[in-house]
Each structure stands twice: as C-alpha cells, then as structure tokens.
Design goal:
Elements (H helix, E strand, L loop, with lengths): L1 E12 L2 E13 L4 E5 L6 H8 L7 E6 L2 E2 L5 H11 E4 L11 H11 L6 H9 L15 H13 L5 E5 L7 H18 L2 E5 L3 H4 L4 E6 L2 E4 L11 E3 L1
Parallel strand pairs: 2-11, 3-8, 3-9, 6-7, 7-8
Antiparallel strand pairs: 1-2, 1-4, 4-5, 9-10
Helix pairs in contact: 3-5, 5-6
Bound molecules: adenosine-5'-triphosphate.
Adenosine-5'-triphosphate (ATP) binds next to helix 1.
C-alpha cells in the first residue's frame, strides 16, 4: 500500500541545507495501521504531507495505492487526495457552515458515491446520531473529532492519515477517539498512518515507528532497537 524508497527531503536553514528525511525507506501493507512518533521537528508532519501529495520529495520514490506521487501535477494530486485519502487533523478542520451529516457525507458526494446505510452506520458507531443536524460549533472537541473521523472514512479511501488526532483532546476523549479510529479502520479494512506523541494512542497500532535523524526505526516501548533504514511496518 505504501512504498517509500530512499526518500530525501531537505529544507534551507539559513545558508545551509538540512536533510529532515534522509534516505528514508518505509513499507506498509494494506489494511495495517502504524503509529509514528518522534521529537518535535523530526519531520513527522513533513512525511505525512509527502504521503498526502501535499509536498514533494527531493529524492526517492513514494508510492501509495499503486500510484507514484513524485512529480504529480496539481490536478493529479487533487484527484489522488479526493479518491484515495482520508485525513484527520489535530484541529478537526470541519466545514463550519455544514451540519454534522453534510460534513460526514461530503467526501462521498465529492466522489459521486451513494449516500446511505454505510454513512448512517458510521454516525451510529461514532455516537453522533443525536448530533446529525447540528453545526460543528455546537459540538465538544471530542465530538468534533469523531465527526472528522467519520468524514475521513466516508468514501472508504485507500489510506487514512491522522496528524496528532488527539492533540486537542483531554485524556478520556483521546482514548475514546483513538479506539474508534483504529477499530473502524480495521473493521473497514483501511490502511492507517497516525502521527502521535502519545504512547497510549500509539499502543492501538499494529506497529510503532520512531522518526529519528531522518529515518524510521522500529519502536516498542523501548528506545529504538533497529538502526537499519529499511522499515516494514
Ligand atoms: N516549509 C518549511 N520551510 C522551512 N522549514 C520547514 C518547513 N516545514 C517544516 N520545516 C522544518 O522542518 C522540520 C520538520 O518539521 P515537521 O513539522 O515535519 O516536524 P514534526 O516532527 O511534525 O514536528 P511537531 O511534532 O512539532 O509537529 C522542522 O525543523 C521545521 O522547522
């Protein structure tokens, strides 16, 4: 599902170039979940942005769902995101003027998919039935993030990316939201990549990786135990 080979991303830091991602290799099988942790500034969001075709690699090959993301045109990247990606952000990013139901069904409508029992089931499973006609502003943070999860799954994308999905939630909501995100992706057979600082959130994933010095390392609850740059999650 995800195949990243020799990914290099560098930024200009003053007058010098700094490699944030340095010959990074990463494979993830379809229907699996992985949690990626790492220090602030280690490049986690940069990696997610590249997987989302929102940013380009300087070197290397990035493939998602059989598509090579390198050098896609803007139109191709838009099509790729629309069809293949579901994204959950830390800040929820719901459409304020649309109801919960319209937010949730938006990606499905965009893809010309039928709206029906699947979406009602999502609403039910995420405990949002009684909020169906409300606007996001009238929901708590935990409820808004549950809407964002339903929206990310609405078109049954190939890949779900979540960047600190519980970063704005308290401990209790963080557990509830994480459990729902991982369980629903597993249930629907969706591939999931979650960036998180939280070991509790990471514990839900099939595998855990640490981004350190530009590369991903296998990671459990111990410090990194693998220095090879080839990581299969
Ligand atoms: N557009 C940009 N221009 C220059 N530097 C950037 C840009 N985007 C990110 N960086 C730098 O790249 C590095 C990696 O940033 P990134 O946001 O990917 O890290 P992160 O691991 O997600 O951090 P955090 O956990 O704090 O969100 C940081 O040093 C950041 O300052």
């Amino acid at each position: 599902m995800i195949e990243v080979i020799g990914l290099v991303k560098q930024i200009t830091d003053g007058h010098s170039n700094k490699k944030i991602l340095d010959a990074l290799d990463f494979h993830l099988k379809a229907k699996k979940s992985v949690a990626i942790s790492g220090d602030s500034g280690s490049g986690k969001s940069t990696l997610l942005n590249i997987l989302a075709a929102l940013d380009n690699a300087d070197k290397g090959v990035v493939k998602v769902a059989g598509l090579t993301l390198n050098n896609m045109s803007e139109v191709q990247a838009d099509q790729f995101r629309k069809k293949h990606l579901g994204i959950v952000f830390q800040q929820f990013n719901l459409i304020d003027c649309l109801s919960v139901w319209d937010n949730i069904t938006f990606p499905a409508r965009l893809n010309g998919l039928p709206i029906g029992p699947f979406h009602n089931d999502l609403l039910e499973q995420l405990g949002l039935k009684s909020h169906k006609h409300k606007l996001p502003v009238n929901l708590s943070g935990g409820e808004q993030q549950r809407v964002a999860i339903a929206r990310a799954l609405s078109h049954q994308p190939s890949l779900v990316l979540a960047d600190e999905p519980t970063g704005n939630l308290d401990d209790n909501n963080s557990q509830v939201v994480s459990e729902l995100l991982f369980r629903l992706c597993k249930q629907l057979g969706l591939t999931l990549v979650v960036v998180t600082h939280s070991p509790k959130v990471a514990a839900f994933a099939d595998s855990r990786l640490l981004l350190q010095q530009g590369r991903l390392h296998a990671f459990s609850n111990q410090p990194p135990n693998q220095t090879s740059n080839l990581v299969s999650a």
